[in-house]
Design goal:
The chain folds into two domains: 4-25 and 145-210, Endonuclease Iii, domain 2 (Orthogonal Bundle); 31-139, Endonuclease III, domain 1 (Orthogonal Bundle). It is globular and about 50 Å long. The protein starts with a helix and ends in an 8-residue tail after the last helix. The chain is mainly α. The protein has eleven helices and no strands. It has helices at 4-13, 15-26, 33-46, 51-63, 82-98, 103-106, 111-120, 130-139, 150-158, 171-188, 192-204.
């Protein structure tokens, strides 16, 4: 089992970097539909793949003005499952625009309730399950949601928060593990969002300020 004391020291040592990253996310609360849409694209592109490749593709989409009916071109090169994700992005853009969905308003409210709404809405948020919906909402400033990817699950096991990594994550199992992570967060006095960044950077090898 990994050292909780070492984890807390890491949090204290990197508190400023973590706060700066989380403040970047908070700036997207109340942002334009276009800004929120591109963060949605990033989370679709990152699912089951690389955060670096997803962010690179998202930046290309912005440069191509994809939101304003720009084409995809070679923006998704290097993205895992890019053919499926191309369908998801086109679907989401078309329906958000045609339905005149106000993303800022739609995503307002209790984070857990909004996540359920997003994860179920394949018309406007196709390609997002519980994990990617949690990441999307965290990236636009919603706090205290667990982003249970393989990195986080392995860390939760290493720190004794869960006994084993589940073969599959049903919604019920997701919420159960999220609750265990929230309990651990409170017990060691490290906020959920900071804990996610610490776990992810520890496992991915990325720098603290380059959190997904």
């Amino acid at each position: 089992m990994h050292s909780i004391g070492g984890l807390k020291k890491l949090y204290v040592a990197n508190g400023a970097k973590i706060s700066a990253r989380l403040n970047e996310f908070k700036k997207l609360r109340g942002a334009s539909d276009e800004k929120i849409f591109y963060e949605l694209c990033y989370c679709v592109l990152t699912a089951h793949g690389s955060a670096r490749a997803g962010r690179g593709a998202q930046e290309k989409l912005e440069k191509n003005r994809f939101w304003q009916a720009g084409n995809l071109g070679d923006c998704l090169d290097g993205v895992r499952y890019r053919n499926n994700k191309k369908v998801f992005l086109l679907n989401n853009r078309e329906n958000i625009i045609s339905d005149k969905l106000n993303l800022c308003e739609f995503l307002r409210g209790d984070g857990f309730m909004v996540r359920d709404k997003v994860a179920k809405d394949s018309r406007h948020f196709k390609g997002l399950g519980m994990k990617a919906a949690s990441q999307f909402l965290r990236n636009i400033g919603v706090s205290n949601l667990a982003i249970l990817d393989r990195h986080i699950l392995k860390s939760l096991k290493d720190y004794g928060v869960i006994k084993e990594i589940p073969q599959s994550l049903t919604k019920r199992k997701y919420v159960e593990i999220e609750g265990a992570m929230q309990g651990f967060s409170k017990r060691i006095d490290v906020p959920m969002d900071a804990l996610d960044i610490l776990f992810w950077t520890e496992r991915s090898g990325e720098e603290i300020g380059v959190a997904r």
